[in-house]
Specification:
The structure holds 2 protein chains of 2 kinds. Chain A is α+β, with helices and mostly antiparallel strands. Chain A is built from 11 helices and 10 strands. In chain A, a hairpin with a 2-residue loop joins strand 4 and strand 5. In chain A, helix 4 runs antiparallel to helix 5, helix 4 runs parallel beside helix 9 and helix 5 packs antiparallel against helix 9. Chain B is of the alpha/beta class. Chain B has one domain: P-loop containing nucleotide triphosphate hydrolases (Rossmann fold). Helix content of chain B is 43%, strand content 18%. In chain B, helix 1 crosses helix 11. Classes of the chains: A alpha+beta, B alpha/beta. Chains A and B meet through helix 9, helix 10 and helix 11 of A and helix 5, helix 6, helix 7 and helix 8 of B.
Amino acid sequence: MKAVPLRKCLDQHEIEALLRGFCSLGAQVVGICDADGTWLAAYPSAPDAPALLQQASSTRHEASDERGVAVPLVVEETLYGVLYGDLAAAPLLSALCDMLTILIQKALVQKALVGETLDRYREINLLYRAHETIGASLDLEEVIRRVLQESTRIAKASGGSVLLLDSLTNLLTPCDSVGFDVARAEQALMGRAFSDTVFQTGKPRILNNVHHLMRPGDVDEVQLVSLLGAPLRSSEDVLGVITLARTQAGAMFTASDEKLLTALASQAGIAIANAREVQARERGLKQQIEALRIEIDESKKQREVFAITESEYFAYLQENAQHMRAEFDL
Amino acid sequence: MAKVISLHSFRGGTGKSNITANLAVALATAGQRVGIVDTDIQSPGIHVIFGLVGDRVRYTLNDYLWGKCRVTEAAYDVSPHAVPRAKVWLVPSSIKINEISRVLHEGYDVRLLKDGFKDLIHGLSLDYLIIDTHPGLNEETLLSIAISHVLIIILRPDQQDYQGTSVTLEVARKLGVPSMFLVLNKVLTDMDPGAYSAQLQEAYRTPVGAVLPLAIELVRLGSSGLFSLVEPEHRFSQEIKSLAARIVALE
């Protein structure tokens, strides 16, 4: 758990009230300082015992002299501060230390929960923005490009590739990539094994410390440190895979990255399916227009029309048509 | 003021009789009194759609043309029971082989047709007389086209139909037919009707009245009934209804 300054774990007024209460039990001087030696609260005033405080702080053990006692406040192996009391307060300091430890632990849990809530809020915001960006286009190439840009941005990846299943070859085929060319690096290092596994299982996957797969000659060329892949889904169908990479030394993908990419990939899968549908409809429409191409042989038409209209009967009809129609109006 | 509507196709098998019957019912449903004459004497068929078969038919168009009866005596009330107050009459052609054969051998005075149409309109106080013509262009179909206020040309998405339609349109223009519509029938359901309509309009410079689907439901019903009454919400029925409204709206 990340260390939090003591002043952020404890309420100032509550501490002061607590120290006053201890003094009423017989102590003359009681104080509490931060891990860096700054007094948080002291009663009746801040004691002058820097050496003792320093000793308790550095040794993380209780220290005492002829005037008082210093007790380090250690929670989960982290030094949060030091408690000081005169000799009359010494028997009570241990109880005070226990109380403060409980308060710090509660505060830490609370802050962790707040932190986690904030993280989820940020994730939701990121996904919402990504969804808006990806869904703003129905052009397949544009959708894939946006998917890659948003994914690499959100996952702080060095690059990413989208591979879609080619219905003719039944193979995963690279469609586009941004930044570091993951598809090429993966191909050089392990064939298509990582992306194929994600595609076939339909589950996300992390592969950190890729360097253990590398041969000495690969290092400069491939540079891969970690891989993260997620299936691109539309309903029950897996359309392909999005694979991200980090190339900085020690840059690992975490379960949180995997969760984010999975959520983004499910949105991306729907967007890709929609764009494909639009593309198929446009193609179908073009085919229909082609199928409906109306070709009229004008010279043949004129010959046939002439054969019909040259007769006396047609001339009679032509001359009397209007009159005949008018007869029905009577 | 009655209007004559001819439905024509350059080739057979376009679904002309089916469209004629459903259009007549759509017009009648809109409150119009409608008469139909089956002038496809060589291969009559529309009577089946209206269930006009057996002893009920005493006289036919053939009898009128041979002077055996007045034309109104050959007109049968085929108003659909499902549509109250709708009035539709049908003058069928004979389905007797010897009578069809006699027409083919002896012919008839096509000018009698015009008089018969006139008598029918006045005798039954019709708003619309619909002529279901024989495919192709012969004396009888040319007369039907010439006397029509509205000509509806039925075609399928087929190069031969496209070519034939261009001939019929040219002839109809020379005869000064006031209003013409193209109706494209038997269009595969996965094709875009809007694209077809635009292409037809562009190629023929003639309004497209309807683009009708080749639906499995239509095929299943065949000629055994009026599809627009069986499936009123179907695209076919809606397109026919829309065409009827456009015809009624004509000046």
